[in-house]
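Practice problem: predict the structure.
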Amino acid sequence: MFLLLRYHRPEFDSLRREEKLDLIERTCVYINECIDATRKLTAFLEYGTPGKRQRGAALTADRDVRAAVRRDVDGWTYRRIGEELDVPVPQDFKYKGDHPTVRQMVSRGRNILERALGKEGWQRHIDTMRAEAKRWNELSNLEQCAEDTARVLRMPYEEAKRICEEEDKLRKNTKPEI
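Answer:
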């Protein structure tokens, strides 16, 4: 992103801090929109059907990727993934114990991710996501609140933590009447 900005705006390094931040933020927005458009195009090219809406193909690809993440990162069973994604359990599940629809979704999602990141890249991403989930789960509720607030409101962590502490105190001081 910095290389793009410096290439197209040679004066970038001499701009005021606020102007740089605004350009960086807007550049990120446009890059993300470009990535989203590329994902939608890829999903349509892989799963789209002539005469049908593109949105369905993109949603299917998104669902397949979520299924692959739940399987590869979270270690969920096919049945649990099916429950999460509202995929009906097959009638023969009790005696076969297989969920072929979800298994195929996971396979397609994994294929999408491996083509996007490479097999090694997807494995590194799995490891990173597992480490982040472990770190997140080790945080206190207050720390989780602060991180979420800082991310959503784009503010410093310390300020977000202060806000969460104040909200927590208010909740504790407000006792429900019986």
